[in-house]
Amino acid sequence: MPSSVGNTFKPTKFIPVSTAACLLVGSTTLFFAFTCPWLSNAISPAVPLYHGVVFLFVLANFSMATFMDPGVFPRASEDEDKDDDFRAPLYKNVEVKGVQVRMKWCSTCHFYRPPRCSHCSVCDNCVEDFDHHCPWVNNCIGRRNYRYFFLFLLSLSVHMVGVFSFGLLFVLHHLETLSALHTTVTLVVMCIAGLFFIPVMGLTGFHMVLVARGRTTNEQVTGKFRGGVNPFTRGCCGNVKHVLCSPLAPSSNALLCFCRYMVDPKKKLAIPIKPPFLRPALSDRNVTVKLSDNGVHGSILRTKSKISLDGLGEKNTDTQPPLPPKAERHNQLQSQLTSSEESSISSKPTNPPTPAVYRYRPSFGTIPKVHYHATGEKIMMSEDSKSSAILEERGHDYRSEPNLDLPDYGTAPLHRTFQSSPFQLDSISTTPRSLSLKQGGHRPEHSPLGGRKPDPVISTPHRGVFSPGTLSNRNGSLSYDSLLTPSIAPSAGECATHPGVPTMGFHSPFLPTKMCHVRGPELQGQTIVSPYSPVRTGLIYGRHSPHLREREQERERERDPSPVRYDNLSKTIMASIQERKEMEAREKLINRHGPGNYANDSGVFDGCSRVPPGPCYPDGQRGPGSRGYGSRDNLIGVGLVGYTPRTPVLRSAASSLVRAPRTSTTSLHTDAGGGGNLQYRSPAHQPHHSPIAVPRSPSYSHQKVSFISSRERAESPHLGTREDLGQGKVNGQPQGQARDCHLGAPSGTALSPSRHTNVKKVTGVGGTTYEISV
Amino acid sequence: MAETHSLQDLRQQAAIASKVFIQRDYTSGTICKFQTKFPTELEARIEKQQFEETIQTLNNLYAEAEKLGGKSYLEGCLACLTAYTIFLCMETHYEKVLKKIAKYIQEQNEKVYAPLGLLLTDPIERGLRVVEITIFEDRSIGSR
């Protein structure tokens, strides 16, 4: 009798099976011993022979039903269920032959139960095609042993009928010697047979009907298909054939009896897997901007896999829990983020290094765009220096800013970039995936997205924290750097241009971030960007896998309003900004040489060593730090969360920042474009403080973040936070808010608006309520 | 030994980056069939065509295993007649196809997936619920 591992030995559960076995074997033995001799003499020797065969059949089927693995699903491995445990909705719908069937999440086995599968509490296993748990055989009846159970019932019924009939015949012929031993024994056997006749026959008849209808006991008893259509039926004949003639399914459990299929470890050859790996031709997919989710936790495996299966269609959703569309998006993004984050750590150099400044198209038309860099976004830097365009693209707000940096590596005069931004945008647009940044600020909100859409997102693992702004900043800084130190430019350019250069990816995100900070608040777009960018970048950063979908990009784009529009700034301001940038860049350079500690991320960093990371980041950390810092806020803390594991310092900084944005999120969407702009503008006009003060950035980012966060929140509540996701997804499952904590960031609590005064509750997509400080 | 050691070294070189799980496709009922949708995580690692071909071949093999044909009927009858003792000696049709599938997966891994930094896991190890594809991180720079 199969039992799950770890079950304690309970003698009581063996009582029914022992009783049944004893009665069966005992009675039949007595029958053979006392009745059959006379029968073979009086009637025919065929009678005992017949009974012998039938009894053998009964025993064989009884043994098979008792000892055979019913079709137990092994527990899902940890990798498979990482996400689902926290955020998975309780049910998932799947369409089977046109009928919607609900798959329930099994919390014990950690997977969604396939159709017709059920969890047996006695055996503590999920059983395929679960019929029922039979105490008489002390085993579940499922796919693999249903036939034997059914045949056992049939044969037992036949056997009982036979025993009773021939016993009766015996007794009738020995009425005068009823007290004789043989007769007595025969009478006893007859009584037993007669006693169990009705239940057994009843059960047999019941199962005959079930087989004919193609249902399991479980389905019949729970009334699943009462009045409805049973999608699993194959017609009466087909069902009977399926039960009786289908091949014996394999068992995954090698411990259970009758499982002859076992994976032979000897025969499995170890396949060496070592890099470098081939890559499919990605010529037309290079520019994939990977949107990294903000702070999506790492274990996205499940989510990811689920997400990847999303495309299968809602009908057959095996993967994504039925979240609202935005939530899904976010989930995906998050998952991607998480994965990208993780991957970033593992340094996936495959993605174009240049962090794409991903600018989210603000949903509100006027809202300044934030350059959001999806971690994965590599803004396609196609081989040309235009890659900087990535940033630029984004920069439609940033035009001036990103242009400075990105558009041309090494060229970058401010004004130039400024002007060139449109070009770059265009140029970028030419590159297939160049980050939709190209969209250039003034396109309709969705155009950037649109531009991006076709482009696959290249996850820039390293970017992670860089928000689009950062990227643009970076570009700016790059440009500065290039001005200052020509050597940098090539690297920057390299990053931008060569997706394959991992290092680039690293530092590009950092650079811009730094630059953002360097510029200080006066750069509206920039500063705003930086907070966002780090967040975004972080997200992006995390995501190495190039599977950031364009969809997600779009969403991210939509979510992030670009806070600053450089084109709005006066030239003088821009000039001053630039000066400041230069100064800060120099500072950074000085500070930069230390860090490079981020494995993958640092790669970028090192590459950009020129740009001193220090000043840029609020907590004085270099790029990586800033990454988390700014972008986190922007990403509503999601990105932040993602990064926290990397840089604890950043985390603290970021967390503080995170709070800020949250509180002011509403401002964004309440104010729509104008308000946001105003907010952004103001910092820009603040007196420049050349050193990047930590406080400055936080506040700055704060504002920006708030802007973005509000926007993001409004638009995609789920994306930002795991908790949101959890909320969005809830389907009977507990909200996953607590989970955000595991991201390492301040987590959900940090997200709640703290600093700002007026806290407004806004209901975002999916019904999640956000507290926004107005 | 040295060879094994080096192989191990090689294996140790590639760390697992992530895993993708290809779920079952239940649109045709409970027959064993996997979804052929191309997961986004693999977009940069393998051609869609190749992936779909692999999954489709697996689906076809499983369909063959579960087919209710003359062979499976005869097997059932024989098993019945021998009180299922035949299972101790003979391999069922399903098991034979499963071995074929294992061989196919092994071959695919060696020829196609390992060079791409991927590894397919036989779904039987997961109870025929998912096809697990392990994505190994690619540390080589400029591998693109």
From TrEMBL, chain A:
One GO molecular function term?
A: protein-cysteine S-palmitoyltransferase activity
Which residues are in the Palmitoyltransferase DHHC domain? 102-222
Keywords assigned: Acyltransferase, Golgi apparatus, Lipoprotein, Membrane, Mitochondrion, Palmitate, Transferase, Transmembrane, Transmembrane helix
Bias (Basic and acidic residues): 547-562, 710-726
Enzymatic class: transferase
Composition bias of kind Polar residues appears in 420-437, 469-478, 698-709
Q: What is its EC number?
A: 2.3.1.225
Q: According to its record, what is known about the domains?
A: The DHHC domain is required for palmitoyltransferase activity.
Q: PANTHER family attached here?
A: ANKYRIN REPEAT AND LEM DOMAIN-CONTAINING PROTEIN 2, PALMITOYLTRANSFERASE ZDHHC8
Name assigned to this protein: Palmitoyltransferase
Q: Which organism is it from?
A: Pygocentrus nattereri
Automatic annotation (TrEMBL), chain B:
Carries keyword Lipoprotein? yes
TM region(s), chain numbering: none
- Kindly give the membrane topology term recorded for this protein: Lipid-anchor
Q: Which example biological process does GO assign this protein?
A: protein targeting to membrane
- Main localization of the protein described in the UniProt heading: Golgi
InterPro entries according to UniProt: Golgin_A_7/ERF4, Ras_palmitoyltransferase
Q: Which UniProt keywords apply?
A: Golgi apparatus, Lipoprotein, Membrane, Palmitate
Cellular component terms per the entry's GO annotation = Golgi membrane; Golgi stack; palmitoyltransferase complex
**Statement: the UniProt record of this protein carries the keyword tRNA-binding:** no
Golgin subfamily A member 7/ERF4 domain ranges (all copies): 20-132
Where is this protein found? Golgi apparatus membrane
> What function does this protein fulfil?
May be involved in protein transport from Golgi to cell surface. The ZDHHC9-GOLGA7 complex is a palmitoyltransferase specific for HRAS and NRAS.
- Report the family membership: Belongs to the ERF4 family.
Name of this chain's protein: Golgin subfamily A member 7
Which organism does this sequence originate in?
Answer: Pygocentrus nattereri
Q: What are the leading ranks of the lineage?
A: Eukaryota, Metazoa, Chordata, Craniata, Vertebrata
**What is the gene name?**
GOLGA7
